[in-house]
Write a structure and sequence with these properties.
Radius of gyration: 20 Å
Structural class: mainly alpha
Strand content: under 5%
Largest sheet: none
Shape: elongated
Helix content: 55-70%
Order of helices and strands: HHHH
Number of helices: 4
Distance between the termini: 25 Å
Length: 127
């Protein structure tokens, strides 16, 4: 392992904390919206809404579930990057252990793979 890994005190740590906070706020907003929508869904079941209204409600629910899934994945990736920072491995690719370019970390502070390894990871089955 290279000794050039970033420490939690690097410039990326505040970015990771800010992104983690933002994702948590988005998740809470989504939970609140789902609670409000739940009341609407109960009325829908009881009320006399037409098929189009029900289709819109299902589409809205599916969209909210997808957003929640994406936010959860983002939160896990941010936590993973922060754990790597605590361990002194932030900034090193978790696959090839090469230094992740600073430009990549500036753009995507939660990156834990270099671009090439990330591409391979995304193209591999089951990822």
């Amino acid at each position: 392992m290279s000794s050039s890994a970033f420490s939690p005190s690097t410039r990326s740590w505040p970015l990771l904390e800010a992104r983690r906070s933002t994702v948590a706020e988005l998740q809470e907003s989504l939970r609140l919206a789902e609670r409000e929508e739940f009341g609407i869904r109960v009325v829908e079941v009881v009320g006399a809404f037409d098929v189009l209204d029900r289709a819109n409600a299902v589409e809205s629910r599916d969209s909210a579930m997808l957003r929640a899934e994406v936010l959860s994945g983002n939160q896990l990736q941010i936590e993973h990057a922060m754990q790597r920072a605590v361990e002194g491995r932030y900034g090193l690719c978790e696959d090839c252990e090469d230094q992740i370019p600073g430009e990549r970390l500036d753009a995507w502070p939660e990156a834990t793979r270099c671009v090439e390894c990330q591409r391979r990871h995304e193209l591999s089955p089951g990822s």
